[in-house]
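Sat 14:20. Reprocessing the chain from the morning session after the first attempt stalled halfway. Input below, unchanged.
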Amino acid sequence: MEKEGRDIVNTAVREEKIVGRGLTSHTLIAGDPANPAVLLLHGAGPGAHAASNWLHLMPDLAENFFVVAPDLIGFGQSTIPDPSPDNIMGWIGTRVEQCLGLMETMSIDVAHVVGNSMGGALTLQLLSEAPERFGKVVLMGSIGAPAPRTPELIRLLSFYSDPRPSRYRQLMHSFAYDADKFEGMEEIVSSRYKIATDPSVMAVAAKMIDSMKVGIEALAMPPSILSKLPHDVLIFHGRQDRIVPLDTSLYLLEHLQHAELYVLDRSGHWSQLERWDVMRPMMELHFGARDWAKSG
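Finished this time. Tokens:
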């Protein structure tokens, strides 16, 4: 492993550059490697990366788990392969190899996994290709199911057609239940906009988002595959999610063998930011955390 050697905002979390299967992942890590591993897979909005989704909650999970959160290929600081994929399934396939390679390099035989939005579709693909490598599963506002495109999703997928700051602010506000009361919203807008419009990666980012615009329906996992997955799956969905409709989680609930769905009120697409108070105990009990199991 090649260590980055830089401090980030939360000192309980460290970052490393890790190579696996020829792909280099900028990775956030927290917790004791002797504990059960939890792999966190973020979503695909412009400017998304591991820290924007997971940094605030990693110290909590690290109390009982070894937590690993990579910047998925095409996002953040992970190295983009050359040539880069030219369609959505190519991007997902590359990220499957990235995650499995990361686990191999880190000597993680089995991991629990959390998939948010696009990371949910990636999670389902990983489960279908390597079911023995994963334990229990959490999906949050996941895609990977047939569903209509919401107006907000359409605007997200067309962001690079007009990447102005004011339009990006509108996009980020649509992720939240109540943007006016969302603590730190302007900081999120500013930091993610800087990443989304970084000239060094913007052309590839636009290509990647465009591949979703023309092919996102290809990510829908058919019932014939979902019904064969043996994993216990805990599904969260924000009741006021404007990006991914609740229909997607209802579809997954219908076709997965072992699944439970919790619809969170006062939550948009960022349930892990808006309703962590509810999600944390449920996730930790689902994953078998010692402290929660004893208290139950």
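DSSP finds 13 helices and nine strands in the chain.
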